[in-house]
Amino acid sequence: MGQEAQCKVRVGKIVADGKALLESTELIFRSDDLRMRIPFRQMTSIDAEGGWLRVESPDGPAAFQLGTHAAKWADKIKNPKSLIDKLGVKSGMRASVLGIHADSFLRDLKSRTSGITEGKPGKDSDLIFFGAENNDALEKIRTLSRSLKPNSALWVVYPKGQKHITESSVFAAGKRAGLVDVKVASFSATHTALKFVIR
Q1: What single-letter DSSP state applies at residue 69?
Q2: Is the same domain home to 72 and 128?
Q3: Are 149 and 127 in contact, with CB atoms under 8 Å apart?
Q4: Residue 61 has pLDDT above 90, yes or no
Q5: Which of 24, 46, 78 is where one domain is finished?
Q6: Contact by Cβ (8 Å): 173, 141
């Protein structure tokens, strides 16, 4: 989940009060009169001073009055967490991967830990990463949850913005399995990851 703050934004001669959202790959601003979405990769300059966060992008300069958040947000934009960090993978953890074939994810996971089981849940997994492409696949969550040891987590990775599998159906499947959802992360441009833990 991203961070949010009420703020004032100045874009050229326009000044508006609204809500700023700092997501994992973009800065978003919403008000009644103005909506902005600035991907980090498009930012050519990032500066924080006097409670203002100033960014430059191809659309021009924008300044966000964020108070104490300004410097923190600037640091997070300049130094975004890697996907592996966002998913909580630490050196030496035992991880199981089922139904996920993203080469960059698997490469990064293997660079962090060697204790990886692919295609089935490994014994005493600290983390299970499960790719669910449709609602039928979600029925496996109950079985996978039995492989979780205490203080471990199951990440369900599913397509964004689809009708055949939705966030609410993933939430419901986790709840039916006796799990609690605790975090959402953007897994890729096309997929979202939802973290479940034992109740």
Answers
A1: H
A2: no
A3: no
A4: yes
A5: 78
A6: yes
Task: Identify the domain containing residue 30 by its residue range.
Answer: 3-78
Is 50 in the same domain as 95? no
Q: Look-up: residue for tokens 């994810």?
A: 105
DSSP state of 81: P
User: Is residue 32 classed exposed, middle or buried when 0-12, 13-18 and 19+ CB atoms within 10 A define those classes?
Assistant: exposed
Contact (Cβ atoms closer than 8 angstroms) between residue 128 and residue 89: no
Asked if 127 contacts 85 with a C-beta cutoff of 8 angstroms, the reply is: no
Q: How many separate domains does the chain show?
A: 2
Strands 94-98 and 26-30: unpaired
Q: Which helix (H) or strand (E) holds 141?
A: helix 140-145
Round to whole Å and give the CA distance between 107 and 86: 16
Local structure of 54: helix, strand or coil: strand
Distance, CA of 106 to CA of 116 (rounded, Å): 10
pLDDT by residue (tens digit) across 166-187? 999 999 999 999 999 999 888 9
Torsion of CA 124, 142, 103, 93, to 10 degrees: -20
pLDDT digits (tens, 9 = 90+) for 68-100: 999 999 999 999 888 999 999 999 999 999 999
By the 8 A CB rule, do 109 and 95 touch? Answer: yes
Same domain, 128 and 174: yes
Among 118, 111, 138, 116, smallest CA distance to 126 is for 116
pTM exceeds 0.85? no
